[in-house]
Amino acid sequence: MPLAHISQPTIILRNIAKSDSSVTTAIPAIVISESDRLLATYIPQGTLFKNNWVIPEDQRVASVDNIVKSSQREYKDLIWRNPTVRLYLPGVGFSVWLNFDKSWVFNSWYCNLEAPFVRTPIGIDTRDYALDIVGTVERTWVWKDKEEFERRLEVGVDTAEHQAKVLSDADEFIRRFESNLFPFDMGWEDWRPDMKTKNVGLPKLPDAWATDYGSGKIFDSNS
């Protein structure tokens, strides 16, 4: 689907739960580039965002057995710690995150395996698929949360067909990452905010950040 023009400088990046299609994360971000091939966004350090209660790292695998329902969600206001650039490719089953420290030194890549994004009136929605890849500046990589991903198959949260597609998308990320193919050949690790971007200020969440725009049904039908 061609990438429509985004008129507002701020969009809301949301994750939609598989269990009940509720919003689990809503992050305001600044659009820094857009084309038919790529939507690039920037989350400044200090940005306020919403997140449901976070499961401790040592409980992540066990928690798969009890997928959280929306009535049990406890949303928290959190502060984004370090500047981050997120790259979204239309129709592609992962987003690419570039992480910087507070002094704007680039320190890592991150592959978030997720449903291809869909447009909403306030930004874009996607659905996280639990498995991720962390990449170094030197272009080495390691899996993240693979045990949790495998547990989702064991308890029936995911189907074998779904996970095969996720792993295929992971292979595509690795291929591009190791071979310096799009979008890794664009020099985003050298990007820094200009005065125009800085003058936008910290992006903010609208009152409608948790509105159901029907994205969950789209993700369900495509999974």
Write out key terms for the chains shown.
FomD barrel-like fold, alpha+beta, 223 residues, 12-stranded mixed sheet, 12 strands, 21% helix, disordered N terminus, 5 helices
Gyration radius, rounded: 17 Å
Task: Provide the residue-averaged pLDDT.
Answer: 89
- Separate helix tally: 5
CATH topology name, in short, is FomD barrel-like fold
Instruction: Report, as a whole number of angstroms, the end-to-end distance.
Output: 18 Å
The CATH superfamily title: FomD-like
The name of the CATH architecture is: Beta Barrel
Secondary-structure topology with pairs:
Blueprint: E1 10-16, E2 23-34, E3 39-43, E4 48-52, H1 60-63, E5 75-79, E6 84-88, E7 94-100, E8 106-114, E9 118-120, E10 123-126, E11 128-135, E12 141-144, H2 146-154, H3 160-179, H4 195-199, H5 215-222
Parallel strand pairs: 1-10
Antiparallel strand pairs: 1-2, 2-3, 2-4, 3-6, 4-5, 6-7, 7-8, 8-11, 9-10, 11-12
Walk me through this protein's architecture.
- With 223 residues, the chain is of the alpha+beta class.
- The protein has a single domain, classed as Beta Barrel (FomD barrel-like fold).
- 21% of the residues lie in helices and 33% in strands.
- It has five helices and twelve strands.
- The protein has helices spanning 60-63, 146-154, 160-179, 195-199, 215-222; strands at 10-16, 23-34, 39-43, 48-52, 75-79, 84-88, 94-100, 106-114, 118-120, 123-126, 128-135, 141-144.
- Strands 1, 2, 3, 4, 5, 6, 7, 8, 9, 10, 11 and 12 form a twelve-stranded mixed β-sheet that branches.
- The chain is globular and about 50 Å long.
- Residues 1-7 have low confidence and may be disordered.
